[in-house]
Structures are given as C-alpha cells and as structure tokens.
Amino acid sequence: MDAVRDGARTNRDITDRTELNKGTVSKLVKALTESGELVKDPTAGLILGGAQEATA
Description:
Structural class: alpha+beta
C-alpha cells in the first residue's frame, strides 16, 4: 500500500520499489483489488480505494 501511495501504478512499479517477488506482488494486488483497498483504473493504473483515499 505504501508503494502505491508513493506513486507506484503497476505491479512492476511495486516489484521495483519493494523488491518483492513478482508472484507475491501479483497475489497481493489481486487480493487488495478484490477487497476494494486498491482499484485498477484504466488510465491511472493502481490507485488506493475506499477508506484509504479518504485518509491519504
């Protein structure tokens, strides 16, 4: 979440910023988008969703 808050917009951006394995990032992004904590925007990429936007 911090990586997205700090500007990461793709799985690759998150992988580069966090040094997590790409498979791990993919699973985490999937879980977070399903829960609504992240949103995949067609033009902006990954953005914070729900309550995270209100507090950011």
